[in-house]
Fold each of these.
Amino acid sequence: MRILFLGDIVGRTGRDGVLSHLSALRAQLGLDLVVVNAENASHGFGLSPAIATTLLQSGVDVITLGNHAWDRRDLIGHIDGEPRIIRPLNYPPATPGQGSVVVALADGRKALVVNVMGRLFMDPLDDPFRCMNELLTKHRMGVTVHAIVVDIHAEATSEKWAFGHMLDGRVSLVVGTHTHTPTADHRILAAGTAFQTDAGMCGDYNSVIGMTKEPAVARFVRKMPGERLQPSEGEATICGIMVETDDATGLARRLAPLRQGGLLAQTMPDF
Ligand SMILES: [Fe+2]
Ligand SMILES: [Fe+2]
């Protein structure tokens, strides 16, 4: 299965970047499954139902979220009716929406996509390690699904590495989101799981993690509340990771980062 995961879409610029590249990427890379994190897609904060629908109609198969899941309150009443939008698995029981979804491809193959949130330097939710292990009692690669993609939305690199190693051999891909900064450590772990600490964002990198520089810098300098942060609107770099998995085992065969447009060094998977 050929899977593309794109990191946090930030504001209009991130959305336009993704929407303008996606159909060409689907064709060029022969993608079977596209997963995007869209927790910052609506003006940097949250995801509106209308923007979610646009993404899902434009070649995105599953949308993941994170700590900004509920910034757009209209998503709260929408998420139960749209299983392709998932929020972190480790929210308390009875939180609207689901933390995972099994999607069926046009050819009948199935993939489980999961969103979990780390607890270090973040709002501490339930234990993501325990929640993930519990979920995996119900799903096995090569038995119930052909591939499993896990978005670990977390601040601390240590927590993400630990998550990757805990899941090594049991899922296809563990990829981090939330820092909006792509890491250079993408690799296949010892037991066959593809891993990257952070996919990076889809947004303008002439910014402070996607938001306009001046007010974001001023917050650090003045230590006073200031202007509301706004998404920076220069050209986006769309950042993500592509993985090809073995349908029989679900494990990763190849992976490569993708960075297109905007300011970062460009790279495109060549398989
Ligand atoms: Fe984010
Ligand atoms: Fe986040």
Amino acid sequence: MNCPYCGHNDSKVIDSRDVNDGIRRRRQCLQCNARFTTYERLQPASLFVTKKDGRREEFDRDKLLAGIRKACEKRPLTSETVDRQADEIEGELYQTGKTEIPSGTIGDMVMARLKKLDHIAYIRFASVYREFEDITTLKEEVDNLAGHSIINSSDQLPLIPPDELAAPEKNPRRLRR
Ligand SMILES: [Zn+2]
């Protein structure tokens, strides 16, 4: 790892910490003394994705991330939240201990997560991934979600903050004057 400031190829580790599935190291350049951080991620045994048509390709985290990012584009989600979905799915895949995973399984994992996160992102991803056979199937899915959000409407933030509903007069004396 070359120093990002001067390009020198040697540094010392001044702090290291376990983070999720990797190690975060704080380093100091031996030439210019600049400090920088590196993350080491365990590279597990190869994982292959099997396609519907029988083709096999190596699991590509960037491809997974790109698909999730595209679905979440311009949605009110932080990039941290979006990227974490790919990280967690990757982690779950490796934890299965399998060396081959059907592409549909990964798609289902993404959809399950997006469904909880953001319905628009979910529909976008599902329409690409599941290749809805016709517009009726897609509509059914949208209707399902619409019904679902009515049931869970108490989870959503009310338009009027509850404390204003409970106490409409914050300073009643002023009103009596
Ligand atoms: Zn340096």
Amino acid sequence: MSRRSAAPSPICLWWIGADAPPEGALDDVRGHVERVYGLGTRLWHGPERPLHAFDPVRGQLSSTRILEWLLDVGPHDARKVVGVTDMDLFIPVLTFVFGEAQLGGRAAVVSTARLMPEGGATLNGRLLVARLAKEAVHELGHSFGLVHCDEVHCVMSRSASLIDVDTKNGGLCHDCWTRYLELREGTEVHP
Ligand SMILES: [Zn+2]
Ligand SMILES: [Zn+2]
């Protein structure tokens, strides 16, 4: 499952935050994503940042604009590109989102901004990374064509609050796993 394949890897994680990523976080998330999906995953390093996605009135970044930008600027040989940021994300109808993905598409984005534990990343870095890994796996699931799952412990269950995030475990339930295998082998287009 975690067999290493030669580059290019199907999944690329790219830190696109304002500050440096939390220590070791991206490597942990990379390993988790690789274990869950059984696909090679690598870190991509590019200096570009989606500054145009910043909305000065809301003081947040438009996650939808970031998705378009990731497709444009990110590695073109990757099957999936996941942007990871410390900036707060929004879509117009919601106060914030933990992340967003194109259903059955190539791009996903997740943010640490609303996942920060009490005391911050230095005091409770493990919890932050665990939450970030779950949300990265969740958004990637959408990018493979998975929709929300009613099983609250499944990583594809809806995340409206940190309680939801902490309730789910990091993996796909049996039904989502089966569906994922179908989608992965297929055209990645959601019916
Ligand atoms: Zn979702
Ligand atoms: Zn599920």
